[in-house]
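Feature request disguised as a bug: please show the residue count (276) next to NAD-capped RNA hydrolase NudC in the output. Example input:
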Amino acid sequence: MTPRWTTAVLDTQQPGGLAVVRGPDGFLLDDNGPLFAREWIKGQALPVLAEHGIGYLDGEPVYLLELESHTHIQGCRWQGLRAFMLEGDHTLYKVLGYAAQIGTWSREHRFCGSCGLAMTQVPLERAMYCAACDLRSYPRISPSMIVLITRGDEVLLARSPRFVPGVYSTLAGFAEPGESAEECLVREVREEVQLEVKNIQYVGSQCWPFPHSMMLGFHAEYAGGEIVPQADEIEDAQWFNVHNLPPLPASRSIARYLIDLYVARRLGHAEPVLPS
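Example output, currently without the count:
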């Protein structure tokens, strides 16, 4: 089965195709959604910072217009990426998630990190180039671990002050240089709740475009300690019975998948599928 969405580096000199528009307020959309006829939207005098060909949707080329500043288009509005994640079209969210990562990389690599001179896009390659330093900068992926800790019928869930009110989720954190994913997991759990874990098992991964994470999902069993939430990072952390869970993260997130998978296995239900 041919996937509806595939990423690709497209030639921005070619005409036609569709375009998504990203600015400081999120993605532009009208009553038909966030996909516009490329030639039409480019004729709207937008403050375009960069244009990138990002892939094919149902065989149609798709381009990203990354804007430099706020703007207004009659009949259009702006919407953040997280709102699209909660809506029904997962393929569209994947398109916009990828566009957001390319837009962030493009915006953050306009100038060379070594000498400060302006960088240029490399034709037909996802890279920015500094001629003075002969330096190429590619889109960054930041590896992080996310883990569901369990104790029989109980799962450990926590709240960050940044979460939607009432929602609890799994623990997560970014890997440090020289650290394996498993070492990261153990360190983050100790830092965030002062617990020890055992029987660490890799479950799956998910690209997370907020802004450029690769989430490596794990399951681990409780090995000891009392919960002590990390100040300024963890607002609350508790053991929850699988029969009485609090509000949980969005269904398309790997955090929710780790929870749903364990609950399904514990209760003998059909196992969920990790959103890809």
